[in-house]
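[Automated response] Your request has been received and processed.

Submitted sequence:
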Amino acid sequence: MIAKLLINWILAACAFAITAWLLNGMSVSGGVWGYLWVSLLFGLVNVTVGTILRLLTLPFIILTLGLLLILINAAVLGIVDWLSRDLTIDSFFWTTIWAAIILSVVSVVLDFVADRALRRD
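Generated structure:
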């Protein structure tokens, strides 16, 4: 259980690294520890604030067929940007939305690859 949690944490840090590399307006400072810190903070904010936002906006999420989830993830990224000195996002709206989209896609791909690699053993 703890090993799976640590693997997911490292994968989230890698997803942040890839997203920061792909997106010009987003950067993470502090090296490896900065990526680990930002991914931990993102996970904590996502579990608390993100869950509350998803519950409050559930009817609108259903109406928009899930597209509102991109805005919720962007809001969570904005909160992490505000809380941490290591994450810097240039403009809230477009850069944060693109960061949320790229981070989601990269996370799914990394989770798939890691799951396939771990099942092979």
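Summary generated for your ticket: Helices lie at 2-22, 31-56, 58-63, 68-83, 93-120. Residues 93-120 form the longest helix (28 residues).
If you did not submit this request, please reply to this message.
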